[in-house]
Write a sequence for this structure.
């Protein structure tokens, strides 16, 4: 079982036509994962998405950036973990692959003019159990790069980390 997010620099095979890259290869990482769902997001500069998680039907994520640059944030939400509340930060650019265990909240900030992210997930989206923690939670103290973030209405209403600790039983 994965204990923390893993950043992988998968080899890119370039030639005069462009490039080819393997995103996920089971032999490279020792855990079981069955991809059921693939999605893509597009974001403009200064957009912050997250910090999202699912209360039930949790999702392990394999994230690849197709174009652009993002600051990716993962927060350990497993209350029984010695790393509960620990924040992991990654700069993702094309060629990087991030694997996130299913008990992490996830979010990112678009640092380039635009960014395209591809998600491979081991569980379907479950709208009833979608949740999240405020990107600017005072207890998490995440240092985002932008001073004027673009945030969705939904993400502005997410719970605080304290509220998560008090109300969500466990992930």
């Amino acid at each position: 079982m994965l204990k923390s997010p893993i950043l992988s620099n998968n080899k890119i095979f370039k030639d005069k036509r462009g490039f080819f890259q393997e995103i996920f290869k089971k032999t490279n990482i020792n855990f079981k994962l069955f991809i059921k769902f693939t999605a893509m997001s597009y974001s403009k500069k200064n957009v912050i998405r997250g910090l999202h998680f699912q209360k039930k039907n949790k999702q392990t994520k394999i994230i690849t950036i197709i174009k652009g640059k993002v600051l990716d944030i993962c927060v350990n939400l497993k209350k029984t973990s010695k790393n509960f509340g620990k924040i992991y930060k990654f700069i993702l650019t094309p060629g990087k692959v991030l694997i996130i265990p299913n008990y992490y909240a996830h979010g990112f900030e678009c640092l380039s003019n635009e960014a395209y992210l591809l998600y491979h997930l081991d569980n379907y989206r479950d709208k009833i159990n979608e949740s999240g923690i405020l990107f600017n939670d005072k207890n998490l103290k995440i240092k985002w790069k932008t001073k004027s973030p673009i945030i969705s209405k939904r993400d502005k209403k997410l719970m605080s980390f304290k509220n998560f600790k008090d109300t969500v039983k466990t992930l």
Remarks:
- Residues 161-167 form the longest helix (7 residues).
- Residues 6-167 form a domain with the Jelly Rolls fold (CATH 2.60.120.10).
